[in-house]
Amino acid sequence: MDEKIKVNNFIDNSEMIAVTCDIADMIMDAKYQGDPNLYMTIVDDEGTTEFLPEAQEVFNRLYDEVQDLIAKAFNIQFIEDVYEIAFGDNAINKGYTEQEVLNKLKEFSDNSLEN
Fold first, then answer.
1. Alpha carbon separation from 15 to 12, 46, 70, 99 (Å, rounded)
2. How far is CA 37 from the centre of its chain?
3. pTM of the full predicted structure?
4. What CA–CA distances, in Å, run from 3 to 9, 14, 71, 84?
């Protein structure tokens, strides 16, 4: 995998999705006593599976709950918002360091005091 987990509690979006899915899958497995036949169906000759409709709804709720818990634990939304104030949309995924963000915010602050 090309993308890496970023240091200092930052997780890139693809890693966040993967971790969230993995945890939600584990909860689904426990909920259905480890029997995928209770919540999955095979959809083609290659063995591709998908959730049964009711199970998909359960998974979607679990995914949202797990994602919220992870985001709260790492304070991800606040950090993303601070990066975007400093450098615009999706700034957290553009390689800026915490120090660069702080410097840019200080620059904004200093400039606002001059006016």
1. 5, 27, 12, 23
2. 28
3. 0.62
4. 15, 8, 19, 20
| pLDDT above 50 for 62 | yes
Amino acid at 85: I
CA geometry: angle 9, 27, 55, nearest 5 deg:
120
CB atoms within 10 A of CB 105: 15
For the stretch 42-53, pLDDT in tens is 999 999 999 999
Residue 3 has what pLDDT? 44
Rounded Cα–Cα distance for residues 112 and 21 (Å) = 43
Question: Hey, what are 38's tokens?
Answer: 């209770």
